[in-house]
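[recover] target loaded
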């Protein structure tokens, strides 16, 4: 069986040793800012005054313009590339987004797919806020499906602002598995 081209390969015992532990911390490269909120709203033609107008946001009980809650993913991401980093070359493995960090958990699997995501948004994000994402391995549930034998692995991401307030908690479940051996015919 070959190892995956990205993600850590290991044993189920190694994977289970990560249960409940922090498996990654990411600090968002950019603060919440009006320009990115506008660029997020425009292609959706999403017209909600609390995301664009300070007076409307204050009238609704907020201290200022509020970023759409699902932008927490964008604001919680570190940079994909920074000045001084090596440039990608032809034939290089494509850069993966810095999440999900569940692939930093070794497991004896070569393939995967995401099965579900649950999101709880707890506090608003205001212009100037900076997000930090702390990820831990919440659960491993072994299962055999038609696609192969493996486990549903759930990563819990807690997003906090610069004051330590929890802005969002996201549960992402990925099934990591090995396909059944193809029958020789």
């Amino acid at each position: 069986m070959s190892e995956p081209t990205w993600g850590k390969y290991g044993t189920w015992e190694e994977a289970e040793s990560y249960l409940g532990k922090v498996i990654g911390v990411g600090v968002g490269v950019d603060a919440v800012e009006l320009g990115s909120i506008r660029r997020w709203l425009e292609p959706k033609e999403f017209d909600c005054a609390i995301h664009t107008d300070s007076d409307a946001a204050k009238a609704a009980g907020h201290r200022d313009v509020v970023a759409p809650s699902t932008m927490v993913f964008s604001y919680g991401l570190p940079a994909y590339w920074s000045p001084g980093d090596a440039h990608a070359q032809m034939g290089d493995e494509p850069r993966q987004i810095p999440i999900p960090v569940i692939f930093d958990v070794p497991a004896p699997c070569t393939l995967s797919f995401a099965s579900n995501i649950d999101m709880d948004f707890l506090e608003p994000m205001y212009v100037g806020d900076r997000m930090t994402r702390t990820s831990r391995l919440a659960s491993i549930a072994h299962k055999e499906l038609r696609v192969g034998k493996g486990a549903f692995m759930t990563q819990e991401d807690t997003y906090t602002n610069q004051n330590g307030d929890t802005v969002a908690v996201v549960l992402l479940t990925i099934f990591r598995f090995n396909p059944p051996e193809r029958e020789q015919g």
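[recover] notes: Helices lie at 12-16, 34-41, 54-59, 72-75.
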